[in-house]
Amino acid sequence: MIVRSLASILDTAAHVKGDSFESRRILLAADGLGYSLHDTICKEGTQQVLHYKNHIETNYVIEGEGEVQNVVTNEVFSLTPGTVYVLDRHEEHILRAQRGNMRIICVFTPALTGEEKHDADGSYPAAG
């Protein structure tokens, strides 16, 4: 059984901060589950261009409001608490936090190690 609190990972190597986001990486590949679980904050007024070419990502919005835009189709979807969106076809997308910091619970398959850095195109490299 794995029991871990958000408080136990704050300000550790599993708490990654960027200009537009914070990723609190609660479960990672080392936990051996085949997926990773992240509690992510997207800062109000920011946008991120992302393209997870090597991962499926499921996202559940629990705070704040914003939108996600599919870059290829140009479709824009509103994001509010209780909304889930899944990048099941590796869609390149733009994530915008518009009203308040957007807090999103994210699940990645395959699991992230926690050491990844976004490539220039917004993706994470394939697992080695």
Describe what you observe in this structure:
It is an enzyme of class 4 (lyase). InterPro entries: Ectoine_synth (IPR010462), RmlC-like_jellyroll (IPR014710), RmlC_Cupin_sf (IPR011051). The two termini are 26 Å apart. The mean pLDDT is 92. It contains no helices and eight strands. The protein has one domain: Jelly Rolls (Sandwich). The chain is mainly β and 128 residues long. Strands 1, 2, 3, 4, 5, 6, 7 and 8 form an eight-stranded antiparallel beta sheet that branches. β2 (21-27) and β3 form a beta hairpin.
Set out the fold topology.
Blueprint lengths: L14 E3 L3 E7 L8 E7 L4 E4 L5 E15 L5 E4 L4 E4 L5 E17 L19
Antiparallel strand pairs: 1-2, 2-3, 3-8, 4-8, 5-6, 5-7, 5-8
Protein name: L-ectoine synthase
EC number: 4.2.1.108
Catalytic activity: (2S)-4-acetamido-2-aminobutanoate = L-ectoine + H2O
**Please, what is the CATH homologous superfamily?**
Jelly Rolls
* Helix share, percent: under 10%
Number of helices: 0
Oligomer: single chain
Give the end-to-end Cα distance, rounded to a whole number of Å: 26 Å
Q: What's the Cα radius of gyration?
A: 14 Å
Function: Catalyzes the circularization of gamma-N-acetyl-alpha,gamma-diaminobutyric acid (ADABA) to ectoine (1,4,5,6-tetrahydro-2-methyl-4-pyrimidine carboxylic acid), which is an excellent osmoprotectant.
Enzyme class: lyase
EC number: 4.2.1.108
Keywords: Lyase
Task: Offer a quick outline of the entry.
Keywords: Lyase. This protein is mainly beta.
Pick out its properties.
single chain; 128 residues; globular; Jelly Rolls; mainly beta
